[in-house]
Amino acid sequence: MTKEQGNIGTKSVWAGEADVLVHGATQVPVVVSVAYNYDDMDEWYDVATGKKQGHIYGRNTNPTVQAFEEKVRILEGAEASTSFSTGMAAISNTLYTFLRPGDRVVSIKDTYGGTNKIFTEFLPNMDVDVALCDTGNHEKMEAEIEKGCKILYLETPTNPTVKITDIERMAKKGKEAGALVIIDNTFATPINQNPLELGADLVLHSATKFLGGHADALGGVICGSKELIEPIYHYREINGATMDPWAAYLLLRGMKTLKLRVKQQEINAVAIAEFLLKQDLVEDVYYPGLKTHVNHDIAKKQMRGFGGMLSFSLKGGMDAVRILLPNLVYANRAANLGAVETTYGPARTTSHIECTPEERAKVGIPEGLVRVSAGIEDTEDLIKDLEQAFANL
Ligand code: PLP
After folding, report:
1. Is 334 left (phi over 0), alpha (psi -120 to 50) or beta?
2. What is the Cα–Cα distance from 289 to 291, expressed in whole angstroms?
3. Which residues pair with 202 in a beta bridge?
4. 265: CA distance to ligand 1 center in Å?
5. Ligand 1: which atom is nearest the Cα of residue 208?
6. Catalytic residue among 96, 112, 286, 344, which?
7. Residue 47 contacts residue 55 (beta carbons within 8 Å)
């Protein structure tokens, strides 16, 4: 038995740390050194040229950062991993590693707003063609893949309407077309979904969200085969979107409680969704765990749990949101998600701030849509809080 072999909650606590523990310390040290000393010129050369394991310079590798990469790698069941300063750096560095002018990308219309900007603004500038499909329209996506596809990029569940794509089905189709299949697994976390097991080539996270879980550190991470991770690492080490060792430490510490947090967040998300469904002033509730959710069956098939994210719209639109959200006590009204505190925010101000109202409407995001990231508080308190806030609406 090793520390890397337990169930997922045990791995979150123990895996990936042994190589960096020194002096009998039980916790991973924060190594802040920018460079590493070598008295032996030949050893230095061998490490610098990759013939020998070791560290040379902080933009390339760092022991604390490597422990973080290892833990996520093990949780995602991957051969290799590398990390970034933010989730967006993970996404952009990965796309720019593989795409060349004339290539074609197939994705969905409602990826996270920053990702969507890469597809609609930056990739077209590089002469990369991007086909964006409605999430859940698998037939249309398959037809687009058949027209030519270098990268199939999916985010499931999506931000903020938590729509689901069938990873197994799309990965199979993508592979048949010779595409690289990349999944943003930020919302599901490795606790609830492992895309590599479902046929994807690469799985990435904004570690800023659920992995860290305390809204105090930015980071991104990607996992896959050694063959795919090596060129991504090379692109990042030269372009410099490196994770900070302090961030790596905070993310590692957060990940020890990942399973506990995700479980409680899901309990709270279910309770909030059920409460909202009963409110006359609520127009729609989006949560993949609801039987009424458009992609509930796919979610049930590929996820071990439905997660802590949901969204809803009010009949009074943005005017009603302006009254409701300030009334909540146990809530951060902020542009983050996945934290231990429950967080509410209109999608137009948070995930999709980069889009115009017309662009948001096209992907099914009404101006009054509120994204909820359930925290780990006691469920009764969150429901009582919603009751008083709705009573005053
Ligand atoms: N992917 C998803 C699903 C997100 O929600 C976000 C940010 O909200 C990102 C990626 C980008 O992550 P970061 O803010 O760490 O750059």
Report:
1. beta
2. 6
3. 182, 224
4. 18
5. 15
6. 112
7. yes
Ligand 1 neighbourhood includes 235 CB (under 6 angstroms): no
Rounded Cα gap, residues 83 and 71, in angstroms: 11
Q: In Å, how far are 71, 96, 191, 308 from 151, measured between CA atoms?
A: 26, 11, 25, 28
261 counts as catalytic: no
Q: Hey, how many other C-beta atoms are within 10 angstroms of the C-beta on 277?
A: 14
Q: Name the residue of 135, 208, 214, 353 to mutate for ligand 1: max ligand atoms within 8 A of Cβ.
A: 208
Give me the residues paired with residue 82 across strands: 222
Q: Which atom of ligand 1 is nearest to the CA of 187?
A: 3
Q: Is 112 one of the catalytic residues?
A: yes
Say what angle helices 63-75 and 245-255 make with each other, to 10 degrees: 40
Q: What three-state secondary structure class fits 125?
A: helix
Task: State which of 72, 84, 88, 119 you would mutate to test the pocket of ligand 1, scoring each by most atoms of that ligand within 8 A of its C-beta.
Answer: 88
132/89 Cα distance (integer angstroms): 21
360 counts as catalytic? no
Q: pTM score, two decimals?
A: 0.97
Q: What is the mean pLDDT of each run of 10 residues along the chain (393 residues)?
A: 90 96 96 98 97 97 98 98 98 98 97 94 97 96 98 96 97 98 98 98 98 98 98 98 98 98 98 98 96 95 98 95 97 96 94 84 87 98 98 92
Please report where in the chains the tokens 């063959």 appear, as a residue. 227
Classify burial at 259, counting beta carbons within 10 Å of its beta carbon; exposed 0-12, middle 13-18, buried 19 or more: buried
Three-class DSSP category at 329: coil
Structure tokens at 114: 């920053």
**Ligand 1 neighbourhood includes 155 CB (under 6 angstroms):** yes
- Which of 163, 185, 186 is the pocket-test mutation for ligand 1 (most atoms within 8 Å of CB)? 186
| Residue 184 and residue 115 in contact, taking contact as beta carbons nearer than 8 Å | yes
Distance CA 364, CA 362 (A): 6
Helix axes 226-239, 87-98, angle to 10 degrees: 110
Rounded to the nearest angstrom, the gap between the alpha carbon of residue 312 and the centroid of all alpha carbons in its chain is: 21
Domains for the chain: give ranges and CATH numbers: 8-255 (3.40.640.10), 258-391 (3.90.1150.10)
